Amino acid sequence: MNIRGNSRRGLTGSTVGFFFGFAAVALYGPTAVKFKEAMDLTPALVGLLIAIPALSGSLLRIPFGASVDTNGGKKSFLILMLLSVIGLGGVTLLLFTSYPDGMKGMYGLVLTFGFLSGCGIATFSVGIGQTSYWFPRNKQGMALGIFGGLGNLAPGIFSLVLPVFLTYYGFISAYFAWFLFLLVGTILYGIVGVNAYYFQYRKAGVPEAKAIEKAREKGQEIFPAGSIKDSLLLSAKVKNTWALVALYFTTFGGFIALTAWFPTYWAEFQGFNSVKAGLYTAVFSILASVLRVPGGSVADRFGGEKVALLAITAILISTAALSISHSVPGSVFAVLLLAAGMGFANAAIFKLVPVYVPNAVGGAAGWIGGLGAFGGFALPPVMGTIAGAFGAVGYARGFLVFVILALINVLILAFLLRARNSRLVEKIR
């Protein structure tokens, strides 16, 4: 029986897949004006086009995250990445053949391709489940921090590279380059990605009890409880799943939302040009992503709840400062604190998934990753509405949304900490 891979390869594969899966999300915002001009779109239609990859990338996390409990993750990864390749390839072909004069009446098709392009973002919840099955509980934070941190670098790097690429090579060439990038990434994941031992034994026809026994001998600690439906239902019945959803809505949904929002904030409120706005946005995105790596290890050592509580307090303070700051240095300092808070919070929250929902990690990852990432779709329009109501200063006042969410999150974490401490006291007694 050919059982392949180890935890290091499993983590490498899932991280590579997630990084490449994020390829399309950076394109639509900076290039939306081109579609607006070619198809004569209203601001509302432009907003929907920008947000549509985040919509599919969040909602599809729920069923695909749960599917890891039945197939181990590799099949789900490849399906999502291939759908994203089709979407990005489709819009690239459409631009080559029809832009700009033949784009009238093509909005529905562009929207469909945008929806498909966002499927790669949903690889996050698949990777969370796949990585969790590879590692013992005492190394979950470290492994998931590396997965989320390095995989999450994609939006920041693209925010930095894309304005320069558009300046030198043009609009359509950017879509073609990103399509090739995603295609190469899909092939690379297909070669490197590998399921945890239990799923390999089951695929080889080994009975479930024997597969668990053999996988345990190789060091695997976490095992699935049943079907996709079982995993979703079981995790949905755990009330703390929904507490983690609320936390992740603010931290990861907020991360996606702010990666889209900051270029507008720096340009409209601080008066930066597009390249400078992209650079400052990249600093936020890359720092938040990189800090997920040590954030996972810190959560392993001090506990996910405590680290998340401190991190969300940092989010509260920094967004309150951004909502009133007019100076560039003050805003930059607040953004750096915000990036640190989001990086550590995201790592700490997913450290808690195998702790609170050990029998349905995939289902929980689906709910938390999917509904949490929905913040990336829901929050920018709210911030935009605030900006529209207050004029130029509204681009700063929009951060008040995060102040309110952070306050709610602090209360949730205080409840989780109290409940966990109560359980520990009961155990001692």
Protein model, in words:
By secondary structure, the chain is an all-alpha fold. Helix 7 (123-134) packs antiparallel against helix 20 and helix 14 (239-269) crosses helix 21 (375-390). It is 82% helix and 0% strand. The protein has one domain (7-428): MFS general substrate transporter like domains (Growth Hormone, Chain: A, Up-down Bundle). It has helices spanning 7-21, 28-39, 43-59, 61-71, 74-98, 107-117, 123-134, 140-151, 153-169, 171-192, 197-203, 208-217, 228-236, 239-269, 274-290, 292-302, 304-324, 328-351, 353-356, 361-373, 375-390, 394-397, 400-428.
Q: Mind sketching the topology for me?
A:
Blueprint lengths: L6 H15 L6 H12 L3 H17 L1 H11 L2 H25 L8 H11 L5 H12 L5 H12 L1 H17 L1 H22 L4 H7 L4 H10 L10 H9 L2 H31 L4 H17 L1 H11 L1 H21 L3 H24 L1 H4 L4 H13 L1 H16 L3 H4 L2 H29 L1
Helix pairs in contact: 1-5, 1-7, 1-8, 1-10, 2-3, 3-6, 3-20, 4-5, 4-7, 4-13, 4-20, 5-6, 5-7, 5-10, 7-8, 7-20, 8-16, 8-18, 9-10, 9-15, 11-12, 13-20, 14-15, 14-18, 14-20, 14-21, 14-23, 15-18, 16-17, 16-18, 17-18, 17-23
Pfam family, one: MFS_1
Subcellular location: Membrane
Keywords: Membrane, Nitrate assimilation, Transmembrane, Transmembrane helix
